[in-house]
Amino acid sequence: MADQSELKFPAFPFKPYSIQIDFMTALYQSLDRGGISMLESPTGTGKTLSIICSALQWLIDRKQKQNSETSDQKPNSGHQSGSDDEPDWMKNFVADKEIQVKEKKEIKKKRQGIRSMKVDNLFNRRREDEGFCEEKDQKNVKDKMDGGELNDDEFLVEEYESEEEGGLGCGKSKRKAGGVSVSSSSEEEDDGFDEEDEEEAPLKIYFCSRTHSQLTQFIKELRKTVFASQLKVVCLGSRKNFCINEEVLKLGNSTRINERCLELQKRKKDDVSKMKNLGSGGRIRRTKASSGCPMLRKQNLQTQFRSEIYQEGALDIEDLVRLGSRIGTCPYYGSRSMVPAADLVVLPYQSLLSKSSRESLGLNLKNSIVIIDEAHNLADSLISMYDSKITLSQLERVHSQLGRYFERFRNLLGPCNRRYIQTLMVLTQAFLKFLHLENSTCYADSHNHLQGVSGAKSADDCSVAINEFLFSLNIDNINLVKLLRYIKESNIVHKVSGYGDKAAGLYNGSTVRDGVDESNDEGTSLSGFQALADMLISLTNNDGDGRIIISRRPTCSGQEGGYLKYVMLTGEKIFSEVIDQSHAIVLAGGTLQPIEETRERLFPWLTPDQLRFFSCSHIVPSESILPIAVSRGPSGQSFDFSYSFRSSPIMVEELGLLLSNLVSVIPEGIVVFFSSFDYEGQVYDAWKASGILARIAKRKHVFREPRKNTDMEVVLKEYKNAIDASSDGDLKADSAPQKGAVLLAVVGGKISEGINFSDGMGRCILMVGLPYPSPSDIELIERVKHIEGLGDPTSSKPPEFYECYSGDVKAGFGILRNCKRRGKEYYENLCMKAVNQSIGRAIRHINDYAAILLVDARYAADSSKRSFSHPTNKLPQWIKGRLVSKTDNYGEVHRLLHQFFKYNRERTRVK
Ligand code: SF4
Where is this region: Disordered (predicted)? Predict the structure, then answer.
């Protein structure tokens, strides 16, 4: 590798700043060394471009080195194959061919579904991309409906033999392999869409981020460099993003789009099978041109799609969709097929971090580089991918369909099928019984095993460990692994749901199209079975890996609601699969602190000194940032936005007074962050009633973050227009009544997570209080309890206070108060990560400037007396170092702001 002291990054399109060189050098060295690194670079410092120019330079250098090593070795390689008399080119050819054949076999083996029979491999889980039916024989219900009447043969599940009945070692369908058990991969194989899959996979970099817009931004930056044309780049996304079949796309919902797409692939498969059967004289008629989706009919168009991408260089999702539409071929399958040959794969978190998604997409992480951007909440994002949930209405539907099916086919089913179907009915019945219990009845009273566990006599929500849950329902004797294998292999789900949908359609005289009941928000019958299968998989996890949440809350419309949810608590095992395979993993982000929490939750086996952490300072000069802890309002009232005081009329009014003063000193745009939509609404209404809102609106237009994302664009456009209309931002009170705008936003909402407010759009970010998450969130409290117990070998059993929580705010606070260690720290970190995300929306480039006001007395402290746990210690270094942590009164804040804006206005005018 290159001499580290001489690392250069020629692809950087501008002259890099020294912090950018530092960042690129740190990243390059991390990739060289391998292992895990965390690299922090504040927003607005060119982090993405630095990642591209360093990581891809490393890739090219590494490939060159590998090539030169290979060419050095080849003449003397003395490969075992072939005789010594054979010329080198023949030896190399044979060797390459052998590797190809070996890999081809491996790929094929994988595709045929010969996987480990570990339970978590039985299904593709939590797939946005891959529907449940991908692993199944998804019979097209519409086709079946064409006859107009129920046909027993179509829905009768084939005989199934289990260990007991057939002595086969494990449950097994009598159907021949490949007859109906179809994976998406094998479907592609039939289509011939996988030619490139069989090429030798080059060393590659996987870059993932959270949202599609972040991935689009990445591609945009990549195009500024030579790498866009030098390397093979492919961008992956979901079917919902890529689909160009209008008929499928109009289903709107990801699950339905997935299901429909896979049905279409299956139809093609069935068509091919039929054609085979029709072949006469022993000649098999087979075609690759047949496809249920017109966008996959012509394979040559897929080839054209790939070759145009290679010619055009890096394309983002929108480009790929445009290209696919122009050519008339599916961009989803087109981009997927390019993965094996790609140097750089750009994809969302979910696709890389979920094992089932990796397998579906055929991602091979072996010796690769994985860069995870926006990794500030990685541990929570990761574990949430392994949650599962089934609602009361889904359970009722699944249970009734199973019952109806059993009634209809009871006498035709073999003993094994009968037993497994009955087992499924017992399970769903038990789940339903649990959820149907009256709210006034504690389930602990009805289930002896759980006595004392809930501790909440009138709880709507409660949580329980897996084993306790199974014991309490008397289902602990069911072999879930075998049951899951039966579900996977027998095709029972499609038979039951297909029969159920058709029967319901005939009975109601309504149109049930392909198993899709448009009136049901919770999707198709298949979605219900998918949810059940996911829940059963979750129940096979280790007892301490997660908790079952039982919610019996009514729905908004007052109907009986409720759900069972498995909440995964540990991410370490999941992440270790990524770590084990990759050469290097880089977690990048604007603010990655606290890194210790991430280490403990995702890779606790690494000692702190084994984890490389690099943090660079901000690109902007210190005089461009003014962070102030504002502890008092204009009338001298101390600010306290804690849960108990934040709604008090005094606090709300003082905040209004503060803002009505600030609008006269801060130019252009001010973004105010509240802890929740409810609180923002409360404050807004109070200001409106008291006339404070009118005072603020005299100086600046007031906008509010909409709850619906679809309304966001309009609001942001109007906000921008209002600011643009205010000349140069001078605030001459008398001459210009309204200058700029105020945007009331919410922490955790769309604005705080992903909208950037550069220049005039965000001259000030005002954070109201400390946005701690609500302790009434039962999942949060479960995570807190789990993390509190991490790394404590003495606690085989959780402390008593752990066991008495039911979603009650007071009880939640009680649990938090009792946490002394990591749990408390985690809760505080959640709050400060949200603060950092929100205040990081401003200051996006070197000439930008903004004030950051942290409004609450709890932010204020004499810096010399600030304890380690003080919230401001969790601010990013570039803000912490410049924080004015103590002001005597509002007048001082006003004066500092006045000076700051005057200075920066003049400074930027001179430039
Ligand atoms: S094959 Fe492609 S275009 Fe056709 S339905 Fe599936 S995702 Fe849509």
Answer: 64-89, 163-198
